[in-house]
Design brief:
With 119 residues, chain A is an alpha/beta fold. Helices cover 39% and strands 24% of the residues of chain A. Chain A is globular and about 30 Å long. In chain B, 33% of the residues lie in helices and 23% in strands. In chain B, a hairpin with a 2-residue loop joins strand 2 and strand 3. The termini of chain B are far apart. Classes of the chains: A alpha/beta (119), B alpha+beta (142). At the A-B interface, helix 1, helix 2 and helix 3 of A face helix 1, helix 2 and helix 3 of B.
């Protein structure tokens, strides 16, 4: 379970782990590293992780945060799991489009749509 | 650092901690807001400032003392912001940075900072040594 100083809110729903960010800005490298380590810990405890990351509280990110998401995606795939992203602010979604990472990630408009996309 | 406000120039020496990058970016945001830059403009400028400072401290200063500061200069022009970030490292060749949008590079976790700067800024220039980046954001016409 995350520590009291966790940068994440984690919950379970129908076999899916829902991860939400505490911070509005996912920029600070120390925060990003902590977020990456926490989510990696979640992935390691599940045989075929089904992970939904919600950006509902996020209004800024950085290329380092994108890098962490890519690492998370690779870890989930290596375990035969599934990763979904949802609730991305339009300005942040533009960053995914500019970097073409909207082609790499499975992105949904909201949590409900993402939940129903798991196989 | 100087206190932020609606002045036309701002300079800072940014140290090697993530907090110092956030603090400097926050100062620039306060200036941009004081000059009437809207949310989309501030998003673009913040991203560019954070990425340029991170690149300078993480890559430009690789091998240097961790406390070696990067110089940040911001100049407010009538319809634009000019932001200059200069590190004390040996410099790099911007043309040598792989295109992160190519299919074969999409899974690489690094190498997107410079392309995001180029995407969000109106004009980006490097000096010959490659240790100084000058970014201009032209304010969209009302």
């Amino acid at each position: 379970m995350p520590s009291p100083e966790s940068r994440l809110r984690v919950s379970q729903d129908a076999g899916v782990t829902l991860v939400e960010f505490v911070d509005r800005n996912i920029l600070d490298e120390a925060n990003i590293q902590q977020i990456g380590e926490e989510i990696s810990g979640i992935i390691e405890t599940r045989p075929q992780p089904r992970l939904l990351i919600s950006f509902a509280n996020v209004d800024h990110l950085s290329s380092a945060a994108l890098g962490t998401l890519i690492t998370i995606n690779n870890k989930v795939r290596n375990k035969g799991g599934q990763l979904r992203l949802a609730n991305i602010d339009p300005q942040i979604y533009d960053v995914f489009v500019i970097t073409r990472l909207n082609k790499l990630f499975n992105i949904h408009a909201d949590t409900s749509a993402a939940m129903s996309s798991f196989q | 650092m100087a206190s932020p406000g609606p002045h036309s120039r701002f300079s800072a020496r940014v140290g090697g901690t993530p907090a110092s990058i956030s603090e400097a970016a926050g100062q620039v945001m306060a200036i941009a807001e004081a000059h009437g830059y809207d949310k989309a403009a501030r998003f673009a400028v913040r991203l560019a400032v954070e990425e340029a400072l991170t690149n300078a401290l993480r890559h430009g200063h690789k091998g240097l003392d961790p406390g070696t500061p990067v110089a940040l200069d911001v100049e407010m022009l009538p319809d634009a912001m000019r932001i200059v970030v200069e590190d004390q490292g040996p410099g790099f060749d911007p043309a040598g940075v792989p295109d992160p949008t190519l299919d074969e590079n999409l899974n690489r976790p690094c190498g997107r900072g410079l392309m995001l700067i180029r995407a969000y800024m109106t004009e980006v220039r490097h000096n010959q040594r490659g240790n100084r980046i000058e970014m201009t954001y032209q304010r969209p016409a009302p």
